[in-house]
Specification:
Elements (H helix, E strand, L loop, with lengths): L4 H9 L1 H17 L8 E6 L14 E7 L15 E4 L11 E7 L8 H11 E12 L21 H10 L2 E3 L3 E3 L11 H14 L6 E8 L15 E4 L14 E2 L21
Pfam family, one: Methyltransf_11
Keywords: Methyltransferase, Transferase
GO molecular function, one term: methyltransferase activity
Length: 271
């Protein structure tokens, strides 16, 4: 079951959520030091806390939030870049995305391989994806007050094999978030050294697994890879799961909204 948008937003406004955001942003930047001005970057799941550094760099940044999760406007200071989507029928043409970031997505999907195959469909032949999932052996997966404590956690081997079955070539799976999810007594100055220590000496207990993969192009299009045009809902006001959402409307990519955006959620600003 997908995590609720309100709980995701509230987590990234908390102390431990802000620390997790900054640490994972650094890891994503280390994997992708630069995104080209002609590239399109898609964030799938609840990826907005990690997309801001790419706004002035990539040619286009899109945030796709699954309809069962809900969505909200982002960023607050400009045109809305968020759309509610049907996760197994992404409203983007074949081979239209250069880079894809999946956070708070794969662990909640009822059919993880189907979701990955849909990502394979929209990625260009040289397209790359970074997947962030809770680590089955980590502390964060055992604490249900964070979104990493919900859904199906993965070990490094499990996520690697799943990506291989979904026709991706993978790099080395790494772990991150070694600082415990504490609300008090922990700051970024302490979390940083803990991150370096854990990465070197205790890699198995990191809170999340991070892995980069590249689309494998010599294989045929995966079964069900070509789908009918999907429908997309604009993320206007906060739309929690379990409540009525904005009406579906045909469209491609991201549409704008007329309503004024609420205060930024899930983004604590520049690192």
């Amino acid at each position: 079951m997908w995590h609720d948008i309100i709980e995701l937003r509230n987590f990234y406004q908390s102390r431990s959520g802000r620390i997790a955001q900054r640490l994972l942003r650094r890891d994503l930047r280390r994997i992708w030091p630069r995104v080209g001005p002609g590239e399109t970057l898609l964030g799938l799941g609840y990826a907005t806390p990690f997309l801001r550094p790419f706004l002035g760099e990539a040619g286009r940044v899109i945030a796709a939030m699954p309809a069962p999760q809900g969505g909200h406007v982002w960023p607050p200071e400009g045109p809305n870049l968020v759309a509610l989507v049907e996760e197994f029928e992404l409203p983007y043409p074949d081979q239209s995305i250069d880079r894809l970031v999946m956070v708070h997505a794969l662990e909640f999907a009822p059919a993880a391989q189907t979701l990955l195959r849909e990502c394979w469909r929209v990625l260009r032949p040289s397209g790359r994806v970074v997947v962030v999932v809770p680590n089955r052996r980590g502390i964060w997966a055992r604490v249900d007050r964070t979104p990493f404590g919900h859904g199906n956690p993965y070990s490094a081997g499990q996520i690697t094999r799943l990506l291989h079955r979904s026709m991706f070539v993978t790099g080395t799976a790494e772990t991150a978030l070694f600082a415990p999810p504490a609300e008090r007594g922990l700051g970024l100055r302490i979390a940083g050294p803990l991150e370096r220590f854990g990465r070197r000496w205790l890699p198995a207990v990191g809170g999340v697994v991070i892995i980069e993969a590249q689309k494998q192009v010599y294989a045929a299009t995966p079964p069900g890879g070509r789908r009918v045009p999907a429908r997309v809902a604009v993320a206007g006001r906060l739309a929690p799961s379990g409540r009525r959402r904005p009406a579906w409307a045909p469209g491609r990519g991201v549409a704008g909204v007329a309503s004024a955006p609420p205060a930024d959620a899930g983004d604590t600003g520049p690192d």
